[in-house]
Amino acid sequence: MAFKLKNKKFKYNAGNKKELKKSFKLGSEKNLQAVSGEIKNKLNFKKSDASVPGTPIIRKDLGPGILGEANMDGTIFISNTLEPGSDLEKQVINHEMRHATDMKIGKLAYTDDYVLYNGTKYPRKDINNKDMIYVDGQWKEAGTHDFPWEKEANNGNGNI
To answer: Interior CA angle at 143 toward 123 and 102, to 5°?
Structure first.
């Protein structure tokens, strides 16, 4: 039996375990362990690990006043100014996850020209170098808290 790992070919020889250990080593991470229903050790998550299963979270400079962005490709950007593990970081990730979920189920989508929310298309364009969206008869800057999709994402979470 042979398998490839990072473009290198390894052969598994059941009779030569030393050869296998030299060519491929499994991780040594400890997992949650329980004996007779009693937890013996717990998983440890470092405060700097901002992650959501299935959703890549990427820290980057988002510009002044921008704490997070949910993207159509399923990724979430969070500002590198947020303190890892802080309550604010958790709130921002929760808020952006709500947008990401809405996008995955087809409730929310966007392009450079519009935002589509619950079947309603809201025109979008750059005005004076600002990302603007037409809602309720007026152009408002993207990220404004009174957009319908922002109100829903902020439900129970305050205005972040």
So the answer is: 75
30, amino acid identity:
K
Residue owning tokens 């329980």:
34
User: Tens of pLDDT along 112-150?
Assistant: 999 999 999 999 999 999 999 999 999 999 888 889 999
Q: pLDDT band for position 58 (50/70/90)?
A: very high
Answer for the pair 61, 41: CB distance below 8 angstroms, yes or no: no
Six token digits for residue 77: 């950007």
DSSP state of 31: P
CA distance 32 to 104: 30
Question: Strand pairing partners for 116?
Answer: 109, 121
Contact 75, 55 (CB under 8 A): yes
Q: Are 11 and 2 in contact (CB under 8 A)?
A: yes
Do 117 and 124 meet the contact criterion of CB atoms below 8 Å apart?
Answer: no
Amino acid, single-letter form, for residue 97: M
CB 9 within 8 A of CB 2: yes
